[in-house]
């Protein structure tokens, strides 16, 4: 791949952007005491918790309280919200159908929403860092000077960091190997792998480390197999006579993936299950007071991920969100209408309403194993926590491994397509 000058330039450019992104994860925000942050991290009070999930997507930058502390998460949230709004706002659905111009408008809305969400997240993060709740340390240890100008400067810098990350991702998409935002998410998650594996080696020993590594390799292979699996619904286009030419008469298929929802349902369910932890963080009882019955119930059943009620809720939420997300991203009525418009039909199925019913039937059957698969993958870190006492950010499982494998497969396909344009020979010969 380095023999192609164009592809080599794109790869080197992408690596340069990644280096900038990782450097920014360790530059403290103005007003933050770097020594204080390191002392609080050494206390080890940050494992799990309400912010462990967000910290994973920031590549560890959030717990460093850096200029890139918010990471890519505000953009992910904004993109998901924009996609969901297509269901309830007709204007968004119309923009989606307008092609490149409409997509550009939706991207602009996503950027504005990202800045708004980033401002909210930055305010919450600075408030938690100021009180010491973020890293479990004393107030004033992370932010020695908590005057209003310093706090406002921290918020502005963190929101600017989110904007810069958006720009970096777009540069990778336009001038790099493509899929910029996904590449940055991949890098942020992959950055935590060495420390997670080393912690397993130090705490559990080389035997457990070897078992985890073997299980990880098997899981990656299984995820690649499922992610590449699809149900191909055959479609036949009738022949048409236009003047003296005969067009149509071709055969193709509709590829319906087993996992059409991707990683979004796991992110949804993880975000929902973060809410009890956030409520407990902001409803701490005063010294000498007993916690309320509601907070006590949340603490028992949702305070730790190893409780069976937590695991069952996580699994069921993931399955439910899978069906919900597939229902809003794949519209059988629209597909059937487009097929009828262009003279296509499924062999043995009449065009129109019967085609729509058949596609709905196929989607509902194939989504069930996809939902089971996502629910099982999401529970792997929790199961590992129970069996071997590994940290809940277990590297081979959950959102992390799904994103890394998905982005890896997409990137290889893109690089392969670019190589074939120049050399007629793929990346994997």
UniProtKB/TrEMBL annotation:
The chain crosses the membrane at residues 12-29, 65-89, 109-128, 148-169, 176-194, 206-226, 309-330, 370-388, 394-412. Keywords: Cell membrane, Membrane, Protein transport, Translocation, Transmembrane, Transmembrane helix, Transport. It is found in: Cell membrane; Membrane. It comes from the Bacteria. GO terms for cellular component: plasma membrane. The keyword Zinc-finger does not apply. Its main location: membrane. It holds the Pfam family SecY. InterPro entries: SecY (IPR026593), SecY/SEC61-alpha (IPR002208), SecY_CS (IPR030659), SecY_dom_sf (IPR023201). Gene3D superfamilies: SecY subunit domain (1.10.3370.10). Component of the Sec protein translocase complex. Heterotrimer consisting of SecY, SecE and SecG subunits. The heterotrimers can form oligomers, although 1 heterotrimer is thought to be able to translocate proteins. Interacts with the ribosome. Interacts with SecDF, and other proteins may be involved. Interacts with SecA. Belongs to the SecY/SEC61-alpha family. The central subunit of the protein translocation channel SecYEG. Consists of two halves formed by TMs 1-5 and 6-10. These two domains form a lateral gate at the front which open onto the bilayer between TMs 2 and 7, and are clamped together by SecE at the back. The channel is closed by both a pore ring composed of hydrophobic SecY resides and a short helix (helix 2A) on the extracellular side of the membrane which forms a plug. The plug probably moves laterally to allow the channel to open. The ring and the pore may move independently. This is Protein translocase subunit SecY.
